[in-house]
Amino acid sequence: MEWKPHRTERLATGLFFEFDRMFFRDDDGKELPRDVIRHRGGVSVLPIDGEKITLIRQHRVAVGSDLLEAPAGKLDRGEDPRAAAHRECIEEVGLEPVTLIDIGPMETSPGFTDEIIHLYIADGVKRVVAQPEGAEEHHAEIVEMGLGEAVAAIEAGEISDAKTRVLILTALHRQDLQDRGAHQP
């Protein structure tokens, strides 16, 4: 089957995304509708300062609860992801990255959205004044913890956000590689 839509309908346009219904045809000519959320993408950055990482606990209306997450935000139209990661780290947790390590893009839920989040690790930070933008950020709590504590929080289900889990586990893996390299003859 060739997955090229023969038509697309825009069902809704929201503040941050569009909602499309795409129509495909299978090999027998049967029409197959698929709903797709179009999103301009975002960034997430894990600030690391020595032995500590910094996360933000904020309310997420879509799931109806507070989540512990790495700083993150949507891309402004045409914005460079690295610049957005730098901006979000300052806005949300008052930390300016010294070095941003590009971990790469992550497709969040490709079964229904084209959203891509660009992931970064901030290796070293400078403390600055936080500049919260949205209501969630104004009511958020900044949480510092060790990388080992963060892994335990993942295992306990206290950190359920996918992008944050990916960043923490990537940082742990990078640390393990560095530790093994330092001990090799």
Determine the oligomeric state from the structure. Answer: single chain
Weakly predicted, low-confidence segments: none
Shape: globular
Approximate strand percentage: 35-45%
Task: Note the main attributes of this structure.
185 residues; alpha+beta; 3-stranded antiparallel β-sheet; 4 helices
Written overview of the protein:
- This protein has 185 residues and is of the alpha+beta class.
- It is built from four helices and ten strands.
- The strands form two sheets. Strands 4, 5, 6, 7, 8, 9 and 10 form a seven-stranded mixed beta sheet that branches. The chain has a three-stranded antiparallel beta sheet with strand order 1-2-3, with no helix packed on it.
- Strand 1 and strand 2 form a beta hairpin.
- Helix 3 crosses helix 4.
- The chain is globular and about 60 Å long.
- The protein starts with 6 loop residues before the first strand and ends with a helix.
